[in-house]
């Protein structure tokens, strides 16, 4: 498991670094929300899930999608707006989905992923399945009414959902201390949901906490809330690379980057095993880049396709 977790965090890290390069070259139009620094959460949560479980994600969702098993070539192609993308180039960075893997979609609406996951988990239970939904959202979502409503219904109906708050300290540029009254876990506990704070920089600690929450949900005991404390290494969005907006000190960033999930997990492998995984990831992403760049752009005449359940005439 240590090797698998390292492979996941390394894949996410290098994928995001390559994606940023493609933003700068213009192959990815409009930019992305980098997941750098938060890889341990996606890796640990998704490693605890079974093949029939589902996830919902956020605008910062590449890591979740990759950790759940999405093809890196198809995800990169989606970011580039190509036909071979997960959603045929029509979803882009913030709306990647793959229902075959239980990825019900990333979502640009803050807090919406929690509501969707709660509804999906309820529906799966109504179907008699023992599937669990895991949903990711940031600390900024803790002030969104739709998420609090999801907490209420999940607790009231004992829905099998794991709420994962990725607390990276900022809602865009707003420090969490200036935005959230009380505590983040206290919000969930107010609805009777067991809530725990986890070291989000350590993939194995995230896996342990999520495994307990998933087992609890699968046993019919309802939702669990995990506050995964993490740090966003890069910009909220790549537009910051140009605007140079300042809201974090250099000292804070240096301190935040000192606990890197890739290094924490990598230290659990031998040097030889780590080098082998690194080489494997580089080869995979080089092939993915070639596939994505070689894929066609969608035909403008088909711009309205896939908006509804069937093709438009």
Structural class: alpha/beta
Number of helices: 12
Strand content: 5-15%
Number of strands: 7
Largest sheet properties: 5 strands, parallel
Q: Element order, helices and strands?
A: HHEHHHEHEEEHEHEHHHH
Gap from first CA to last CA:
49 Å
Average pLDDT rating: 95
Helix content: 40-55%
**Spatial order of strands in the largest sheet:** 1-2-3-7-6
Question: Which spans of ≥5 residues are poorly predicted at pLDDT below 50?
Answer: none
Q: Which of globular, elongated, flat, extended, rod-shaped describes the shape?
A: globular
Output the radius of gyration.
19 Å
Question: What would you say this structure looks like, in words?
Answer:
By secondary structure, this protein is of the alpha/beta class. 44% of the residues lie in helices and 10% in strands. It contains 12 helices and 7 strands. The strands form 2 sheets. Strands 1-2-3-7-6 form a 5-stranded parallel beta sheet, sandwiched between helices. It has a two-stranded antiparallel ribbon with strand order 4-5. It is globular.
């Amino acid at each position: 498991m240590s090797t698998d977790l390292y492979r996941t965090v390394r894949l996410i890290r290098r994928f995001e670094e390559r994606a940023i390069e493609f933003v700068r070259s213009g192959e990815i139009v409009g930019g992305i929300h980098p997941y750098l620094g938060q890889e341990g959460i996606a890796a640990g949560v998704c490693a605890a899930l079974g093949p029939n479980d589902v996830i919902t994600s956020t605008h910062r969702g590449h890591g979740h999608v990759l950790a759940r098993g999405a093809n890196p070539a198809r995800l990169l192609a989606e970011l580039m707006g190509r036909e071979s993308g997960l959603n045929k180039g029509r979803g882009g960075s913030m709306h990647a989905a793959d229902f075959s893997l239980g990825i019900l979609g990333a979502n640009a609406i803050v807090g919406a992923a929690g509501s969707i996951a709660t509804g999906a988990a309820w529906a799966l239970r109504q179907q008699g399945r023992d599937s669990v939904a895991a949903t990711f959202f940031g600390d900024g979502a803790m002030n969104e009414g739709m998420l609090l409503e999801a907490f209420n219904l999940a607790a009231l109906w004992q829905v099998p959902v794991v709420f994962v708050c990725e607390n990276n300290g900022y809602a865009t540029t707003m420090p969490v201390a200036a935005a959230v009254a009380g505590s983040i876990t206290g919000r969930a506990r107010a609805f009777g949901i067991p809530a725990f704070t986890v070291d989000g920089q350590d993939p194995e600690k995230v896996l342990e906490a999520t495994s307990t929450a998933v087992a609890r949900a699968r046993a019919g005991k309802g939702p669990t809330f995990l506050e995964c404390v993490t740090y966003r290494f890069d910009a909220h969005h790549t537009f910051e690379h140009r605007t140079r907006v300042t809201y974090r000190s250099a000292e804070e960033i240096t301190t935040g980057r000192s606990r890197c999930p890739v290094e924490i997990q990598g230290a659990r492998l031998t040097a030889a095993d780590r080098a082998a995984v690194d080489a494997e990831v580089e080869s995979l992403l080089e092939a993915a880049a070639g596939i994505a760049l070689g894929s066609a752009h969608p035909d403008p005449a088909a711009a309205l396709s896939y908006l509804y359940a069937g093709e438009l005439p």
